[in-house]
User: Fold these one by one.
Assistant:
Number 1:
Amino acid sequence: MKKIIALALALVLCLALATAYADASVYYLNFKPEQDAQWQELAKVYTEKTGVPVTVVTAASGDYETTLMSEIEKSECPTLFQVNGPVGLANWTDYCYDLADTELVKHLTNEAFALKEGDAVKGVAYVIETYGIIANTKLLEKAGYTVADITNFETLKKVAEDIQARKAELGLDGAFTSAGMDGSSDWRFKTHLANMPIYYEYQADGIGNTAAIKGTYLDNYKNIWDLYINNGTCEPALLASKTGNDAVAEFVGEKAVFYQNGTWAWNDVKALGAENLTMLPIYIGVEGEENQGLCTGTENYWCVNAIAEQEDIDATIAFLEWVITSEEGRKCMSQDMGFVVPFDTFTGEYASTNPLVAVDTALTAAGKAPVSWNFPTMPSEEWKNGVGSALTAYAAGTGDWAAVVSAFVDGWATEYALTH
């Protein structure tokens, strides 16, 4: 009976939405290429139920900010977009509608997931994610190791270098997938990997942001970058042309044991089977890292375009509220996309079923301290690009590590001054 009542209420809601937003439309500029298919299907379902057109356009990986700048000034501009946190909000705050009185904010599991400017809520987090080093445990065991053998950088290096030395014997191309430095893949290293030295510097200095990064742990950043590029599936000089798809193909094709990525990559790697996959912390050689967990946080905040027509703003908010409360929306986000969603409507059968999420939960329960996402404090996209270029040149042998340090430290001070 309860299910019948729920279905009836859902039907009434859809009919009401169809009437209220008869001339409105929704345009979502999606940040995540790996979830494009699911968003397209969800948009189709919503339009069929309500008659409200929902268009989903997915920006190419690494090109979101450029695409948003291009699209936002068009007559048919995105009504829904995203920013990565306070730094991103600083660039787009005038375009962000105040969501304080919406059901979206009321359903957040923690007020920390509301991106605020004063009392105004300019964005809401829609997914909590985790990244680290995804490992094929079957291949690891074939090489004579288990996950328990890897507890810090020293042991990770020992295992990876041994696997690399025996790659032909093991039927592999390398210990690690290629650290592709094209636009579809470089964010894994100029942003996600770069989070590690920032995290440890912030921890040591007791801060959460800075106008001038010191680079205290950049030798450790070099440790892990050298390990990746010297024990990968290709020569370091080839990394500039390697893509995210290359890394996926190498990992799923079982040509590499380790692949730095996150919970969002589950759909890409699930063919290997949950029983053969786990995720390791990214160790970089810092004292006490044996007690470190995975990198967990968010840089994904929904923002509704404040300069859109009011009826489109209202329709967009209604669409999002449907996504986080309807059976279809909750199933899609939690099960099909594999997200951990920070709304109180995602419990029970709508909790995430992503096995990589379960790894993070288990490590945290075991007392391992999650690594916070500090990269939303990076001063600009230009800073990331500078670091990425320096990393690529270093790998290719056309640049040195001093240039990476300069891009990291000097580039930070320069870009912070320009953006603040």
Number 2:
Amino acid sequence: MYLLTAAIITRVLVNPLSNVFQKKLTGKGMEALWVNFVSFFLLSLLCIIPAMSVEWGNYDQRFWIICTISGIFCALGNGFLVKALSKGDLSIMGPINSYKSIVSIIFGIFLLGEIPGIAGLSGVILIIIGSYFVLDTLPERFSWKLFRRKEIQYRFWAMIFTAIEAIFIKKVIQLSDVTTSFIVWCWFGAVFSLVLLLLFKIDINKHLEKTNKSIFGIFLLQIICVGLMQYTTNYVFDNMDVSYALALFQLSTIVTVILGYLAFNEQKIAMKLLGSVVMIGGSVIILLFG
């Protein structure tokens, strides 16, 4: 129980911290897809030693197919997330993640025929009310015009892809264990992040030249946070239902808003905090009682 509590607290704290370092790196001229790839690549190198003790021959074709699908959504989700952070305020991008609960309801209606009850609808209303306070701080205010902003579009795509990824990560954990699932998350994330890097013709040599000691230091801090974030996520998924875990992870939204103010001097924090608390309440209602 103590380990699980520690894992949840660590996950809630390091996820926003990783977002801070990702935003700092893109602010120094690093392309989002490059930041994404380097993070996975360096984590993959660190996984080589623990990977030597894994009996890889015990895993069948189904396991590797699920790992591949998870890796694709992982690379896409994290790529869009870093891209969103490079263009938007941290204190805006964090709270938007609460819409993941609404996305799950929509998928449930059309794919599973699940009609939300009173709790589900109440949660949706709370998320919308909370997002009014958060998004109304932008020039477009709370309106459809917001979706013209690239960072909002990127953040929603990141949210959708990471929500799908979570399903497959849980399956990988069930078929293996926490450490093995973390290793394949890093490896497959690196492979498909490299594919995206090449697909969008990112100049690797130019970015290597830009990566001086100060930038590399930020990269190291970022991969430490990303590594801790994913390992603790896997541990929590292994010890409790995903829906309960996702509800608890929403607490990182408040940390994200506070860090947006402390690290980047983002404004109108009181409104964003109020909106975040309301949105978290809506997400918790949907995930736990919907």
